[in-house]
Amino acid sequence: MAASKVMCRHVLQGRSRAEDADEDLEASLLADMGNEDDWGLEGLLPRGSSSSSAPRQQQQRQARRSLLAEIEDEEAAADGFEEGSLAASNNASVQWGGSAGFTGIDLEEQEDMLRRYFKPQEVQKLMKDQQEIDASYSELRRRAVGLGVSDHKLQQTLRIVAGTAAGKKLVSFRGSQTRPMMEKVRQAIFNMIQSQAGTFNSLPKRARWLDLFAGTGSVGIEALSRGVREAHFVEMDPVVVNKILSRNITYCGFKGRATCHTTKAEEFLRRAAALPRFAGGAFDFISVCPPYLLVSYPELFDLLGESPLVHAGSIVFVEYPKQLAHQVRDSVGPLQRVKDRKYGRTYVAVYAGGSGVVEEQPEEDPFLSGQL
């Protein structure tokens, strides 16, 4: 009887040690997955053992991570197999098994599966169709990336110049898709606008800003950083809005003061003309920075000139290329063109309720030419 009790005790002790070993193994495996705080590892660790959670310095470094790094992690976790995701595009050696094409489908595995259910000639036809789909998708991707339209690789080079978000870096797509305004040009334009508005250190606190053709949102976010009460961003591409614009706004801390409209700028202006108090009524500042060759400047000026979003005290600036200078008008509704500035290859016309004296030739901005 005593021997039986001893044997049971040894068995139980052995089982307890095995269970403890299993718990240790499970905890170590979870720890290897990273972000221990989110997994609640301390509850899995045996009593008396020290937690392997990241030290305070590591947590502080994580808190200071850039917006681009956060998006890279999110993209990799949400859609690691997508050819256009950051995880895949930044690692050319990634292989997704077998003969997977641009659609991410393993063609060899698919063919093996089809052979179980279909006749050989049917399998051959289905595989031919799939290969044609892969080829078409590959060609579309190649052409789109060549145009700078669908290459969703990100970069973080834009910087907010002044105000409460000064120094914050914004993300943008590489290539020509969003074509953000250069930092020095943006700084010079805002200095000029603040001078025109009579506020040299900031923008009026109760002002409302409308950013047409927003793209990355760098212009409207700069305005929010310099003190305007609210800003509305108009961008037609939902991918840009979701992946770039809204993230930049949130990253800079302006989510509560910003409104995004996913629509064409021209359609936004038409809706404003048809609906009273659309988007809250008239704006004090309106920035128009369109993709030069993809818009009609005469149409834009017609819509702005008749828009209830422009009031007699508004300040509007329009960016344009030299080749289309003949399409730039001397007035926008009740506003007159009061300044015309050249910033390298960028030209900017400023409209305000001034005297209507137009500069005959666009002047090189003294800020960029080194005179200031």
Would you mind describing this structure in some detail?
The protein is α/β, with parallel strands linked by helices. It has 13 helices and eleven strands. The protein has helices at residues 2-32, 36-39, 56-63, 67-79, 86-89, 107-115, 120-146, 183-197, 218-225, 238-251, 265-274, 297-305, 366-369, and strands spanning 154-159, 169-173, 208-212, 230-234, 258-261, 283-288, 310-320, 331-332, 335-343, 346-352, 363-364. The strands form two sheets. Strands 3, 4, 5, 6, 7, 8, 9, 10 and 11 form a nine-stranded mixed sheet that branches. Helix 12 links the parallel strand 6 (283-288) and strand 7. Helix 6 runs antiparallel to helix 7 and helix 11 (265-274) packs parallel to helix 12 (297-305). It is elongated. The model is unreliable at 27-53, 80-104, 145-151 and 355-360 (pLDDT under 50).
Strand % is 15-25%
Q: Mean pLDDT, rounded to whole units? A: 74
Rg (C-alpha, Å): 29 Å
Major sheet summary line:
9 strands, mixed
- Counting DSSP H or I runs of 4 or more residues, the number of helices is 13
Overall spatial form: elongated
